[in-house]
Amino acid sequence: MEVKILSKKLIKPSSPTPSHLRHLTLTPVDRLAPPIKASNIFYYPAKGSNPAVDVERRNRLETSLSEILTRFYPLAGRYIRESHSVDCNDEGVEYLEAEVEGKLSRLLSRRNEVIEQVIQLAGGEFTNSLASVQVTVFACGGVTIGVRIRHSVVDGFTAAHFSSAWATASRESMDKVIWPSFDLASFLPVKDLPMVKPRPPPKIFGADKVMTRRFIFDGANISSLKAAACDPSFKREPSRVEAVTALIWRALMVVSRAKHGCLRTSLASHAMNLREKIVPPLPGICCGNLYTEVPATFMADSGKTELPNLKDLVGLLREVKFKESVSREDVLLTVIKSTNELHEALGKEDIDVYNFTSWCRFPFYGNDFGWGNPAWMTRCHTPVEMISLQDTECGDGIEAWVTLEKKDMLQFQQDGDIVSFSSNGAP
């Protein structure tokens, strides 16, 4: 797949950001965000529409982006490292237009073979701008829209709300868009916070050392998996995310046991959105970073090699589930404590840490920019070991994007449970 960049420009807000909003102070949660880019690519197959209409829609994309940036004004600003803030100076978002000679339908029919290549559709490797957008047109008329935003200013919730709001503005009008708020710092008091333990440098591999594979857990298989992972003592059956996380966690333990000759202590860490947990509730759509890492720990007994069952792992995931509510005053303290627990484990060579992230239930498949709902939504392959979960198009299944060292992936994808419960378990 050869992607040819046709143009590159900066898209600025359609009206200036008011002077009282020009300085955005980032919260301690923003500062804890990893130095990566949150990325989404939406795929819209050609549907035999009029080429002139498609050109008009693509023009509308650019215009509506300029309009929506008046609401999401920090994305058009620039990060000030020294003060941990954003200068909302309206310098703009990087906007690329590209083309591909092939057919989008061919790419969609070969999804498992092109996972490492889709990064070409995601947007530019921007340096100063906080966000980048790439619109790619295929020879057949199909379109992909890639969005990349620095994690230091957005989490999954904010990224999802931005793409949804932009789609609404492009398809309908700005009148239909709900106003977001970027005022988290004023709601989360900073006082008497403990020190954050330094995060060990992430283990970044060369592109030829890691492999990303996509495993599909459809609705029927997830129902079977939930039944297998449900214990009579549970007050409710496992969720889709809990069941799939437990299965993948167990399969990764098998890989680790084969590598080290014993069962090791391990953590499965999920990022959790805190917005619905805070009391009193935050007003409106609060954008930025407002999540915490929630690490569940399996303690291995010395010399034992017997694996825990799925019910045990679901129980461990539930033990660390965030409490029902947390006051605004305690949010930052809670986040730092969880972060320190994760960072401490990352610094120990005899503990395996598996990083999960879930974008399930975010409304990505409702992002209609004028071409209808997307046929697929992906994130980008990154050379860091992690497990990313997202909804399937129909909504009742889960796509798991797993990135591992190649030698580990070869064993992981042949795990009996992975093969049994996922449609793409075998190579």
TrEMBL record:
Membership in a protein family: Belongs to the plant acyltransferase family.
Gene3D superfamilies: Chloramphenicol acetyltransferase-like domain
Molecular function per GO: acyltransferase activity
Keyword set includes Acyltransferase: yes
Gene name as annotated: ANAT
Key words of the record: Acyltransferase, Transferase
Protein name: Anthocyanin acyltransferase
Pfam family, one: Transferase
Matches recorded under InterPro entries: CAT-like_dom_sf
Source organism: Vitis vinifera (Grape)
PANTHER family (alphabetical): ACETYL-COA-BENZYLALCOHOL ACETYLTRANSFERASE-LIKE, F21J9.9
